[in-house]
User: Fold this.
Amino acid sequence: MGLLSLGTPLPWDQAKGLASEVRKHGIEQFLHIWRNMKDRQKDSLLWGDEIEYMLVSLDRANRRARLSQRGHELLSILQIDENEKLERAKQTGEKPELEALWRPEFGRYMIEGTPGHPYNSTVHELANVEANMKRRREIVTSLMDKDEVLLSVGSYPSLGSGDFLIPPHKANGQFSRSLFLPDEVINPHPRFRTLAGNIRERRGSKVAINMPIFHDVDTPRHFIDPTIPFDRNLFPGDKEASEGAALPDHIYMDAMGFGMGCCCLQITLQAPDVDKARRLYDQLATVGAVLMSLSAASPIFRGYLADVDCRWNVIAGAVDDRTPEERGDKPLNKSRFVIPKSRYGTIDTFLGSSDGHFKPEYNDLKLAYDHAIYEHLLQNDIDDLMAKHISHLFIRDPLVIFEELLDQDDSVTTDHFENIQSTNWQNVRFKPPPPNSPIGWRVEFRPLEVQLTDYENAAFAVFTILLARALLAFSDIDLYIPVTKMDINMERAHSRDAVLKEKFFFRRSYAAAEDDDKVSFSSRDGEGDGVVEMTANDIVNGSSDFVGLVPIVEMYLDTVDMDTCVREKIDKYIMFIRGRANGSIMTLAAWMRDYVRSHPAYNFDSVVLPEINYDLVVSLDDIACGRRSAPELTGK
Assistant:
């Protein structure tokens, strides 16, 4: 969830006056890192994953499934054990024996789990990923009550709809001021409520999230949500829904919790050096939308079937703190920039690397950036592309400032830099080394929807890492497309059944074997810049226009010595990815939509009734725990 500090978070009326100071020191902290770490070389290809879970309580007698606020309670227990082991290791000087690390997320019902130590750079280690994911699930499950289940799904179907939370609370909180979500869904860490309140205050209104309704047979053609309390008059923002914030034929949501209360699968990988990290950042950004369509897992919001399959745009809307001037709705007066996107979106500019593939025309989005910061970075020997990247991130204000952390030594801490860096939530994130740490230059891959089973999550994680290593091994692979086409791809990836029905902009490329049995890759010239529209199957499995991401990974694996059993396990993961791309294996989004539409209580009106939600949650848990087979979903 980004930087988590302890202290007194400042409300927006106090924090906004300190934004320039935080930006100033954040830049100096970045420069200190750059000077000390830019020449760092030969770091191992360590990596890790993050899986977010939801704790759900089942009322079996009344067939109701509710999000449980005990998620925070379980997290506290998990962290006690973790902290004791870390303290013991500190005293003995030995490596701590940690199976997993546990971190809070925005929702009080959420738990984030990561491996206890980074995975190493060997291919053999990839065979251990699924076992570690299973162990994490077992650890949490061992602490749960008999009527609780642990789900890894993108969006909880009934979040913000009716009786969805236990203990129940009314939606009347001061921080979110939501018509649907009580503040009690928010993690009690002081950062989270302040974040929700400050986004609303800075924006000048509540966030307005609208996902298109799935028009079923009996869904009203001009759908107006009857559950919106248009006549509530508790807060000034209550009238926004009736004044146009809630769109017809859409599912309306009005709080940060609807987005940051979703779950995801994220992969962070360490590169050998800063140049390789820049290559990975650029190349992985271009495949984000396609892999997101394969992982689609979020077809239901606030108790309604949506005409989208992914959560990305919900989160983008949930943290959109831009003022009307920044959104272009009013002429600039008090704001400094017109900003085309939310803080949560695809990257706006490539970083370039020594591979020689980047061309200036790929950065075709009109970039808003702080010119004074940009010039200051250039004067301190930061190259043009990196200076544009950093000065673009720093057009944003810090959203949460802790009073105790205002005065810092910029040579030994990066809190001010991370304050802004960590609240630019993009599809990939370029991560400098922390100060006084063995950790190197890293890239975080962020667009994947979390999967229901550990097998699926392991398959996506392993495939992502293998693709990243192949991109480093085969430096002649060029996946660049213009940034604006990457934005189009991300929009298309949200569409219902996008993995089967949409086409994505991608660069033509083919592979050829050389005399020494090495493989070379080259881009094919086509119309314009060689970028054409392809299906997800074309991009993943290959076609006459593109060699395919799976064949690239397989070519890389052929260069690595490994045990037969390890290769067989990896091949199963690759076959799963192939199946998702060619449609022989369903996405969770498609599976959930089909489940709802085939339920005997469904009225074909897009409404997911509480009893349908209950049966869906029970079925999802049965599949996740292996009590129910679902080969159409997992390929197993």
